[in-house]
Specification:
This protein is mostly helical. The protein has 2 domains: about 375 residues, MFS general substrate transporter like domains (Growth Hormone, Chain: A, Up-down Bundle); about 60 residues.
């Protein structure tokens, strides 16, 4: 439940006064140029796209590598679990050794692991390469927000964070659009392998640009890695996410229940270790004081349900369109194009709307998103099993518009009061929350959908998942009412 927050307006842009700038960004730190911003956003898009790009390629991977359902889910879940588990550590390492340096290392590792995915000779080699790719993404992504926080101020920072928010949402949908296109085109007979190999030249270009345009920054008081906290956080994340994403496909074996039983103990031990570390003057992996910042607490509380609903929706619709409506990979991907476009346009308009209407933007965005879900459910119910791609466009557009008014603003809220000295760890915590929510959405809504298929069929299972997401959106709307009325 969201704790009450002060009625003092949340500043989504930082004042440009010399004193505030000096407190939050060292005077000698270079500013992020437009080309540098484009470069870090390109780096941010790669991990986000790859969380979903494989969805529409799963049937082709199944035919080519003869993978069973549990292995196919591991191809998706292995990436997500490694990604979410290591994100906070990636942010901390960037604070210590330099965010530009970690960004370059992450880009290089992401390109190499993508190449390994594209060349995988069998299903379990692909799973291992996907886990390594998720770890590389965890090094790369936290440096983006940390660099924006450290190398921008005022209206530049507000615009950069809004563009990051737009990139975060659009990339998730673009992943499935791009995946469908690449599988359908079948470049040089590469089939599904192209969805991974396409990352290699993009990462190489981003690496060259980053070496020239991205300024270096780091915490002025770097600290050592919190090894006990890192281990306990990894155990807690794996204990929660692995059984939820893999348990159903494996038939809920004993290990899945044992891991779920371990989660509350690992999470409790992690909280105790972090509190003790901060109390004794050491630097914990996730400082508990970070979660006492009102903007961080309120923003993260709303990001969780939003990400759960979004992650579940993207997984379910990829399966429903291909298995139920018999769309090919390209048609399944292109059905999401109106959502991508509407999301991006809404995210660009967000800063001006927030300045004028405050929290009403988030509440309105949630209501619009709910309207889009209802419209999509009615369209599917009326036209099944012959719903053309064009018939989905109106509801997808409304969905994207609503989502684009919610997530980018929530990201700005989390970052608005975050000190530059905690930019890396703060960005890591935020993205970990978002990615964990996406993984939980795939696990919960995906499990609900797949469990209903034998008895209810694909249409009714899809409708049940949409109605469940509608309930989640209603909860997000209510949480929005607890935000301050105005946000600068």
């Amino acid at each position: 439940m969201l704790h009450p927050v002060s009625e003092t307006p949340i500043a989504t842009t930082l004042p440009d006064t010399p004193s505030a700038t000096a407190r939050r960004r060292p005077a000698a730190a270079p500013l992020l140029t437009p080309l540098g911003l484009l470069t870090v956003l390109l780096g941010a898009a790669l991990p986000m796209i790859d969380f979903f790009i494989v969805n529409v390629a799963l049937p082709t991977i199944d035919r080519d590598l003869h993978a069973d359902p549990a292995t196919l889910e591991m191809i998706v879940a292995g990436y997500g679990v490694a990604y979410a588990t290591l994100l906070v550590l990636g942010g901390r390492l960037g604070d210590m050794v330099g965010r530009r340096r970690l960004f370059l290392w992450g880009l290089a590792a992401f390109g190499l692991t993508s190449l390994a995915c594209g060349l995988a000779p069998d299903a379990w080699t692909l799973v291992a390469a996907r886990v390594a790719q998720g770890a590389a993404a965890a090094l790369l992504l936290p440096q983006v927000l940390a660099t924006i926080q450290a190398a921008t101020t005022g209206s530049r920072r507000a615009r950069a964070v809004s563009l990051y928010g737009g990139t975060a949402g659009v990339s998730s949908a673009v992943g499935q659009v791009l995946g469908g296109l690449l599988v359908s085109v079948d470049l040089a007979g590469s089939g599904w392998r192209a969805v991974f190999l396409v990352n290699v030249p993009i990462a190489a270009v981003a690496l060259l640009l980053a070496a020239r345009t991205v300024p270096e920054s780091r915490s002025p008081h770097p600290s050592s890695v919190d090894i006990p906290g890192t281990v306990l956080l990894a155990v807690a994340m794996v204990a929660l996410l692995l059984p939820l994403t893999e348990g159903r496909a494996a038939g809920w074996p004993l290990w899945s229940w044992l891991l779920l039983a371990l989660f509350p103990f690992a999470a409790g031990a992690f909280l105790r270790v972090e509190r003790r570390a901060e109390r004794t003057g050491r630097t914990p992996l996730i400082p508990p004081s970070l979660l006492r910042i009102p903007s961080v607490r309120s923003g993260l509380t709303m990001i969780v349900p939003f990400s759960v609903g979004f992650g579940g929706f993207m997984f379910v619709i990829a399966v429903a369109l291909q298995s139920g409506l018999h769309y090919g990979p390209l048609a399944a991907g292109m059905s999401l194009f109106p959502l991508c476009l509407a999301y991006f346009l809404a995210s660009l308009a967000g800063p001006r709307l927030v300045h004028r209407f405050g929290r009403k933007v988030i509440i309105t965005g949630s209501l619009i998103q709910g309207t889009g879900l209802v419209a999509l459910a009615l369209t599917v119910h009326a036209g099944w099993p012959t719903v053309p791609v064009a018939a989905l466009a109106p509801s997808m557009t409304v969905l994207g518009l609503g989502q684009g008014l919610v997530l980018p603003v929530l990201l700005r809220i989390v970052l608005s009061e975050l000190p530059v000295t905690q930019a890396g760890v703060g960005g890591g915590v935020m993205v970990t929350t978002q990615q964990s929510g996406l993984a939980l959405g795939v696990a919960t809504l995906g499990t609900l959908f797949l469990s209903l298929l034998p008895s209810a069929g694909i249409r009714d299972g899809f409708l049940a998942a949409l109605l469940t997401q509608l309930a989640i959106v209603a909860g997000t709307t209510l949480l929005g009412l607890r935000l301050p009325r105005t946000m600068r």
